[in-house]
Amino acid sequence: MAIYCPLVAKDESLTLDRQREAVRRFASVLTSLVYDPTDPTQGETAFILSLPVKPALSLQIDAAAAKAGLTRDAWILQAIQARLESD
Question: Residue 75 CB: number of other CB atoms within 10 A?
Answer without folding.
Answer: 19
